[in-house]
Amino acid sequence: MAKVAAESSVQIEDDRVIVTEWRFPPGAETTWHTHKYDYIVVPQTTGSLRIVANGGETISQLVAGQSYSRLKGVEHNVINHNEYEFVFIEIELK
Q: Do the bridges between strand 56-62 and strand 47-53 make them parallel or antiparallel, or are there none, so unpaired?
């Protein structure tokens, strides 16, 4: 079965930040990636995402408008664990 890719749309990219909107249909994923910059995620949807990293998996419960931050350098894959579209804004700090 083919993987469904999450859709990304860069809203702003300048010398300080990259702001990207991510849209995940049900079951969609980012595929494996590593961030070059520290980043902030601002969920636009309440729900759960499955995060696969470091040989393990976690289910992250997110609430619309409740941001979190992560450091660069961790290889991971993000998968929509809901039966509906999940959306978040990602702000990478250069």
A: antiparallel
Domains held by the chain: number = 1
Look at residues 82, 79, 75, 92 and name the one whose alpha carbon lies nearest to residue 41: 92
Please name the residue ranges forming H helices in 1-94.
none
CA dihedral 70, 76, 64, 40 (to 10 degrees): 30
Any domain includes 64: yes
Show the domain range for 20. 7-93
- Decide if 2 is inside a domain: no
What pTM was estimated for this model as a whole? 0.92
Please report, for the domain that includes residue 79, its CATH number. Answer: 2.60.120.10
Average pLDDT score over residue span 80-87: 97
DSSP state of 57: E
Question: What is the maximum alpha-carbon separation in the chain?
Answer: 40
Q: Are 18 and 91 in contact (CB under 8 A)?
A: yes
Residue 2: per-residue pLDDT? 53
